[in-house]
From TrEMBL:
Membrane spanning stretches: none
Localization annotation: Peroxisome
Naturally occurring in which organism (per UniProt): Gilvimarinus japonicus
InterPro entries assigned to the protein according to its UniProt record, in alphabetical order: ClpP/crotonase-like_dom_sf (IPR029045), ECH/Chromodomain_protein (IPR051053), Enoyl-CoA_hydra/iso (IPR001753)
Pfam families to which the protein is assigned, alphabetical: ECH_1
Keywords carried by this UniProt record: Isomerase, Peroxisome
Chief location of this protein within or outside the cell: other
Name of the featured protein: Enoyl-CoA hydratase
Organism domain of life: Bacteria
């Protein structure tokens, strides 16, 4: 079924057999997220939270990328990260989702393309996928709780390396570090995620929701406070000279943010 929502053309969403599949569909720009895309993603997730017909949410990209992260030119057009900023709405919608969230990483996952995965319940990637957090390279700081969650997931030493150096991590290494659940060939990825989603649909939904809540409750950090502190610093960086110089360099070279 189609959603009773008006989404932007770069975000496709359809609910089939109780699985809401959300696809980021801006392949020419490596699925870089504009403000309009953030808003559509937030709206789709908010709808999924209350829709009885949705039992599982699955998010993926199109082409050869999951997402290259923020469309920096568009993001810098609204540098004030107010409470109703589309990116904030998206983060709240992800964190507020009580239903299983499965990520099908079909390619490059850069910036929030990687930090989002820290909030997903299950993450599967293709062999060609890579994961990169180039915040410092862009004159920025981590977001979406990555300054705390990443160390919990991959260890402090690895988290420092990923966040401070910002070099890409290949899918097999990401699996070995514990960032993702499994790696599959391009040919197998979609089918394997199909199976996982079907299995989740067949699980008792209340038990799944309670289990997800308890897993989150086990965190020893106030995640909302961490994210808020990150966003305060992120906004300062976004308006700073270092970020503007980095973005200008990218624009002049016509490179995606994750490119070296």
């Amino acid at each position: 079924m189609n959603l009773p929502l008006q989404l932007c053309q770069e975000v496709h969403a359809e609910c089939v057999r109780s699985v809401l599949k959300i696809q980021i569909n801006r392949p020419a720009q490596k699925n870089a997220l504009s403000l309009a895309m953030y808003q559509s993603l937030a709206d789709a997730l908010a709808w999924a939270q209350t829709a009885d017909e949705v039992r599982v949410v699955r998010i993926t990209g199109s082409g050869d990328s999951f997402t290259a992260g923020n469309d920096l030119a568009d993001f810098m057009s609204a540098p004030e990260l107010t409470q109703d900023h589309p990116a904030r709405q998206f983060m709240r919608a992800v964190m507020g989702l009580h239903k299983p969230l499965v990520a099908e990483v079909n390619g490059a996952a850069v910036g929030i393309g990687t930090t989002l995965l820290l909030h997903c319940d299950l993450v599967y990637a293709c062999e060609d996928a890579f994961f990169q957090l180039p915040f410092v390279k862009l004159g920025l700081c981590p977001e979406f709780g990555a300054s705390a969650l990443l160390a919990e997931r991959v260890g402090v030493a690895r988290a420092r390396e990923m966040l401070m150096l910002g070099e890409p991590i290949l899918a097999p290494d990401a699996h070995r570090f514990g960032l993702i659940n499994e790696v599959y060939s391009d040919e197998r990825l979609e089918g394997e995620v199909d199976w996982v989603c079907r299995e989740l649909v067949n699980r008792p939904p209340q038990a799944l929701a309670v289990t997800k809540h308890l897993l989150r409750a086990g965190d020893q950090i106030d995640l909302e406070a961490v994210i808020e502190a990150e966003l305060v610093e992120f906004a300062k960086c976004l308006n700073g000279d270092e970020c503007r110089a980095a973005v200008q360099k990218i624009m002049s070279g016509n490179k995606t943010p994750g490119n070296k």
